[in-house]
Structure formats: structure tokens, C-alpha cells
Write a structure and sequence with these properties.
alpha/beta; Rossmann fold; 6-stranded mixed β-sheet; 10 helices; elongated
Length: 288
């Protein structure tokens, strides 16, 4: 069942030439989507639109669980952890959690207790004295203690040590297993590849690729061609992007199995991972 659908979404900014334009994007219920893009690509702009922090010039965002047209839908159905953690600095960690339990719709006390065993915190410690990583752990407890169908996290592992990074990503997987739909943005390609089941790559305000990770890696490949050889797209062979490498050009391609098998020397064909896909798209011209 579709959990989220975006259609013909446009957001422009009066003092900037940047424009976000997403023709179509969907996410299945219980999925984990990794949102990828270089700085300024449009990841945070999209998250703000999803959260009704900003509003589109045109187009629609439809959350299908619990009816997105309902008043205060985001407050009652979405849990959000921003990249920069704005908390009440004069409070202790314990006071912040108590305040959250009294003010956040859908708060689950037993879940909060479980999370404090996963993300250990000194509850007596003032928030003003916390490191960035400790603030992230506190915000994670708050985020995952809100029992709602949708979770959105901006850069979940930023500032965490490797152990806490793994625990954070494990919570994303557990949320998905519990039927929640998760969207997280990241600069860490490996954590997206290991955690998400779908990926959306944004470049210059547009979603260039969006699909299940397994389908992306099975349907796409890299083609290395010596300079001077022209590779023309055809009906059963599409060039998505290309970048230069010493003496060669590297093309990201999608084709039928028979078309791929027909590619012979001096052309070389390579399987891809998410890193290959992301780097080739962002270092090249994207073909339409």
C-alpha cells in the first residue's frame, strides 16, 4: 500500500534561482527511504515541504495513512528529528523527556524507557552541557518514543560514534518492521545502502532516480568506453549519466539483458553499487 505520494510538486524561492520540482515520487507503507543529494540539492527543502514547515507553489503531497487532509495531521502522525537539535538548554535530560511526555501526541512511556537502554544518557545532565552526539541521542529517544505511522530524520548519524551510529540505524529498521514508514536524508552512502530499501537521489532540485535499491543495482550498470567512441542511446539501451575518467568515459546505463550482453570490447561492463550510481549522477550531465 502506498504511504506517500508526491505529484508535480514545485517550490521556488524569491531571492534564489533554486527551484525544487518533483514530478512524481511514491513510497510504500513500512518502507525506509534514503534521501540522497549533495549540499544544496534540495533534500532539506523537500523535508520541510513534507512537514508543512514550508508550502509548495503548486503540486500535491498525499500521506495516505490517517488522511493527510485532517487538521494537525503532521503533529499527530509524523515524528521528526532535524539535523540541528534545538532543545531547551536550561532543562536537564530528564526534565526534557518529562516535558516531551506531557506535550507530544502519541508519546509511549514504555518505548522511552526501552530507548534509554539503547541510547544511554545522564538524565540529571543539563542540555546546555551536552555534546552534539549526546543531543542527538536525547532527540532520538524523543523521536522514536512518539508512536506514529511516519518518521522523518535529517542526517540520523551525524555526530555519533560508530557504536551509536549502528544503534540509531537499527532503530530505523525496527520502526520499519513495526509497520512505520521512514524517510531519512544522509550524506553517508554506506548507511543508506545498509539501512534503506528504497533510495531517491536528488540533483538540482529534481529526483533523478527513485526505486528499490535492489532493483536499481540489478537494472543499472557502468559502461567504460574509450574516448572517441560514441555510444548512442536506443530503445533497449538508455544512458542516464556519464562522467570522465582518464582516457575513458564512464556511463551509467539501463538496458535489457540482451542489450547489455551485446556490448563487446573495447567496451567494459561493470556492476554497480549505490556509491557508483550516486557519484556518476553527481559528476555528470544527466540524460533525459
Amino acid at each position: 500500500m502506498t504511504a506517500l505520494s508526491i505529484d508535480n510538486l514545485v517550490k521556488s524561492y524569491p531571492k534564489s534561482s533554486f527551484k525544487l520540482h518533483i514530478e512524481h515520487l511514491t513510497l510504500e507503507e513500512g518502507s525506509i527511504m534514503g534521501l540522497l543529494g549533495i549540499n544544496g540539492a534540495g533534500k532539506t527543502s523537500l523535508l520541510k515541504l513534507l512537514l508543512n514547515i514550508t508550502f509548495p507553489d503548486s503540486g500535491t503531497i498525499t500521506w495516505t495513512k490517517n488522511s493527510s487532509a485532517a487538521p494537525n495531521f503532521i503533529v499527530h502522525n509524523v515524528s521528526y528529528m532535524p539535523e540541528y537539535k534545538n532543545l531547551y538548554n536550561k532543562m536537564s535530560c530528564g526534565s526534557m523527556l518529562k516535558f516531551s511526555s506531557q506535550t507530544i501526541p502519541g508519546w509511549n512511556d514504555s518505548k522511552a524507557e526501552q530507548l534509554l537502554a539503547v541510547f544511554p544518557l545522564d538524565l540529571n545532565k543539563k542540555i546546555s552541557t551536552l555534546s552534539h552526539g549526546e543531543k542527538t541521542l536525547l532527540y532520538a529517544v524523543i523521536t522514536f518514543s512518539k508512536d506514529v505511522p511516519y518518521i522523518i530524520i535529517d542526517e540520523p548519524s551525524r555526530g555519533l560514534d560508530p557504536v551509536m551510529q549502528e544503534r540509531m540505524l537499527e532503530q530505523l529498521k525496527l520502526a520499519s518492521q513495526a509497520g512505520k514508514t521512514v524517510i531519512f536524508s544522509s550524506h553517508q552512502l554506506l548507511e543508506v545502502e545498509e539501512t534503506a530499501d528504497t533510495a531517491a537521489i536528488i540533483k538540482n532540485g529534481e529526483v533523478i532516480l527513485n526505486d528499490y535499491l535492489d532493483d536499481l543495482k540489478s537494472s543499472l550498470f557502468l559502461l567504460a568506453a574509450p574516448e572517441g567512441i560514441v555510444i548512442a542511446p536506443r530503445e533497449d539501451f538508455r544512458i542516464l549519466a556519464q562522467r570522465k575518467q582518464t582516457g575513458h568515459k564512464i556511463l551509467l546505463c539501463r538496458s535489457t539483458e540482451s542489450a547489455r550482453a551485446s556490448l563487446k570490447e573495447p567496451l567494459k561492463v561493470y556492476d554497480v553499487n549505490l556509491r557508483d550510481i550516486f557519484l556518476t549522477i553527481n559528476e555528470s550531465e544527466v540524460y533525459q
